[in-house]
Structures are given as C-alpha cells and as structure tokens.
Specification:
Layout lengths: L51 H17 L7 E9 L2 E2 L15 E7 L4 E8 L5 E10 L2 E10 L8 H10 L13 H13 L15 E4 L2 E2 L21 E9 L4 E8 L6 E10 L2 E9 L24
Parallel strand pairs: 1-6, 7-12
Antiparallel strand pairs: 1-2, 3-4, 4-5, 5-6, 7-8, 9-10, 10-11, 11-12
Length: 309
C-alpha cells in the first residue's frame, strides 16, 4: 500500500539568557538592574476537551434540533460562533431553526480536533443536503458551521444523495482496514491538488463511487468502478482547507473554497478509505447564484405510505 507522508518542520523559539556580571567595586553603589516591569506571559491556546461519546451526543443533538427546528436541543457555550455557508449568521437565522423531515443522515467524529461533521438530507418540501460541523469543548458546542445546498446548487439532487447514503457502508472499520489520519489527509489533499495539476498521483481505489451534489458515478453498479473520473480541465486551486478526521470509520472531511480564498465557492469533500484507498467520495458545493447545472433522479422515488382512511 502506497504511503502518503508529509514532513513537518517544527519552528522552535529560542530564548537567549543574559548573565549579568557583578559590578566592580567602586566608591559609589551599583545601580540596580531593571526587573522588566509586571509582564505576564499570555496563556497558551486552549486545547478543547472531548470524548467520542461527547461528540456523538453533540451530533445527535444537532440532528434532533434540525428535525424539530429547536436549537435549544443543542448545548452551546456562552461565546459560541454561528456560521452558514462560511459566513457569520445570527443564531436565529440559521437553517437549524427550521424543522425539517430528515430522510437520511450520518456523522463522523474527530476526537483529536474535537469536531464532528454531519450530513443531513431532506427530500420532502424544499429539498436540502446539509453538511454541518460542530466544534465541541467539555460537552458544549463552541461553533456550528453549516453548508446548505438546495435547488440551483452544483449538480444538486437530494433524492439521489439520500439513496446513496442508505446503500453505502460508512460504518466503523476493523482495525486492520483503517488508514492513519495523516495518510488520509495527504490522500485527500492529493485529490484536491489534481484540480491544479493533473500529473499528481492519488490513492485511487477500486471499486470507488463519488456522489457530487447528486451526481453519482456508478449507477450501473460496476464492481470495477473508479472515482478517477470527472476532474475538470484547466487549473483550479482549492484553498482554505480545514479537516475533520474519523480514524475509526476511515473518513476525512474537508471544508474548502474553489479559487478565491475569500469569495470562492464554499465546498465540502469527504473521503471514505478502506485499506488505504478511496472507497467513497461525497461532495457539496454552494452556488451563490443558485444557477448551477442540475441532475435528475437515478432511482424511482421511494413509495410513501398511504394515508389512513
């Protein structure tokens, strides 16, 4: 199995120590050295505290809040941040205030970064595919960050997305089939770097299926399917990459932007690995103009139970 290793250079601060010599004996007393005032070193950045259980509880509370339209289901810290489509939003204006019928959902948990990522698919009423991150510290949510895709967003189709989530296997992997967190990050970066340099290698797996908004690469259920399709021509830089990694499930998820670091299209790419290779790829891209190409249904709509007479 090809390893994807990146070297890290640690930059260490050096503190020089000054040694003061005893003043030579004179007829006048030596002048006292200054003490430097009342300087107090700043505290180190706080490292959030979480467990897999506390992250799962937070993710579950978010799903329940979205089902009911009641954000009080979530336990926020006093200084929590609220973002939607990579922009600050008033807490009362986020989509989590709207009750939605959830057709499919799944979450990943990162105990190193104390973050979660949850996909929620809504197929009734206004359709949505939502990707939401929670930042958790000591059982409190310190930040909620949602990407909300709907009609008009890139290749959108909620029916297809829900169908794919239900038929794919994103469960916890046996230890022998897991991939190291750094290797998953490196492989995901290689995939995104291919948008700018088509000659780079990546841990392509067979079979592998990609769901892009609602476009699915293996409708015919080919056992030799690959995700090495559809990388666009030209040079496109994908920036502002930020990671959530669930080593137990073999998943890395990236928030990023296409092109401009301030105004580029907000995007999520999520990769499932098995034995060090891509197995599934999910992507969500938010189109500001809501005029992107759309995808039709691949599968018949699920039959709904008849109303009681």
């Amino acid at each position: 199995m090809k390893k994807w290793m990146v070297g890290f250079v640690a930059v260490c601060g050096m503190v020089s120590q000054l040694q003061a010599a005893e003043p030579a004996a004179t007829t006048a007393p030596a002048t006292p050295r200054p003490t430097g005032g009342n300087f107090v070193a700043p505290p180190p950045d706080r490292v959030p505290v979480c467990t897999r259980a506390s992250l799962q509880a937070a993710a579950d509370s978010y799903v329940e809040a979205q089902r009911t339209g009641n954000p009080r289901k979530m336990a926020f810290s006093g200084n929590a941040r609220f973002l939607q489509d990579m922009a600050a939003v008033e807490p009362a204006r986020g989509l989590w205030n709207t009750a939605l019928k959830v057709a499919a959902t799944q979450s990943i948990l990162d105990t190193t970064r104390c973050k979660t990522f949850t996909e929620i698919v809504v197929t009734e009423g206004t359709p949505y595919v939502i990707g939401t991150r929670l930042y958790v510290d000591e059982d409190r949510i310190t930040r909620i960050d949602s990407l909300v895709t709907t009609n008009g967003d890139w290749l959108f189709n909620a029916n297809n997305y829900a169908h794919v989530i239900k038929m794919e296997d994103w469960a916890t992997l046996p230890a022998g089939k897991r991939t190291k967190a750094q290797d998953m990050i490196n492989g995901a970066n290689a995939y995104l770097d291919a948008f700018a340099d088509k000659h780079l290698d990546a841990p392509w797996g067979v079979p592998c299926e990609r769901t892009e908004g609602g476009a699915y690469t293996n409708v015919k259920a080919d056992p030799k399917s690959t995700c090495k399709v559809g990388i666009p021509n030209g040079v496109l830089y994908i920036v502002n990459r930020d990671y959530v990694v669930d080593e137990e499930k073999g998943v890395v998820q990236i928030f990023c932007r296409f092109g401009n670091s301030a105004s580029g299209m907000p995007d999520s790419h999520m990769f499932k690995y098995v034995d060090g290779k891509y197995r599934y790829v999910h992507t969500l891209s938010v189109s500001t103009a809501k005029n992107s190409p759309q995808i039709g249904d691949y599968w018949p709509a699920e039959a709904k139970p008849a109303a009681a007479k």
